[in-house]
Specification:
This protein has 161 residues and is mostly helical. It contains eight helices and no strands. It has a single domain, classed as Tetracycline Repressor, domain 2, CATH 1.10.357. The chain starts with 7 loop residues before the first helix and ends with a helix.
Length: 161
C-alpha cells in the first residue's frame, strides 16, 4: 500500500489494491490529516477539535464525493481485500492523527491515542450508519449523524456492561 500525503489527487493515482475504489475514503483521510494540524494548537478537548476538523473536511468535499463514498463502501463490504485495505488506511490515518497531536510537549500520549481512537470509532459509526441508510438525506444527513454520534460518546464510555 502506498502512503498518501498531500492533495486528494495524489491518493487517487496511488498504486494500491482498490486504487480508485478507495479514493473517497482516502480523500477524507488526507484532508482530515491536513485539517487536524490545527487541532494541535486548539485549546479544549481534542476530540472536539477533531470533530470540528471532520465537519470542515466533509463540508469541503466535492459534490460527487457522497456518491463515490457510498459506492466505495458498498464495494468494500463485498470484497474482503478492499475491506482490509480500508481498515489499513483507517489505521494509517489514526497513526498520522496521533503523530500530529503528540508533537506537543504538554500531552499525554496514552490519552491522545485514546481520544483519536474514540474519534475514529465515532466517525466510522456515523459513516457506516449513513451508508446502511443508502446515503439518504445526502451530506447534510451524514453531518447530522456525525453530530448525533459524537454527542453519544460520553454516554457510551459510561455504558454499563
Amino acid at each position: 500500500m502506498t502512503h498518501c500525503s498531500g492533495a486528494p489527487a495524489v491518493c487517487r493515482s496511488a498504486p494500491m489494491p482498490g486504487g480508485a475504489t478507495a479514493a473517497p475514503e482516502m480523500d477524507i483521510g488526507t484532508l482530515m490529516k491536513a485539517s487536524s494540524t490545527t487541532a494541535s494548537v486548539i485549546d479544549g478537548p481534542l476530540i472536539e477539535a477533531l470533530r470540528v476538523a471532520l465537519n470542515t473536511t466533509l463540508s469541503a468535499m466535492d459534490p460527487d464525493w457522497d456518491r463515490r463514498f457510498l459506492a466505495a463502501r458498498e464495494l468494500s463490504e463485498a470484497v474482503p481485500a478492499l475491506q482490509a485495505h480500508s481498515l489499513g488506511y483507517c489505521h494509517d490515518t489514526t497513526l498520522a492523527l496521533v503523530n500530529v497531536v503528540s508533537g506537543r510537549a504538554d500531552v499525554d500520549e496514552v490519552r491522545v491515542r485514546l481520544a483519536v481512537e474514540i474519534f475514529v470509532a465515532a466517525w466510522r459509526t456515523a459513516s457506516l450508519r449513513w451508508t446502511v441508510q443508502g446515503g439518504h438525506g445526502g451530506r447534510d444527513a451524514l453531518l447530522n449523524l456525525v453530530e448525533e454520534t459524537f454527542a453519544k460518546v460520553p454516554a457510551a464510555l459510561a455504558c454499563p456492561a
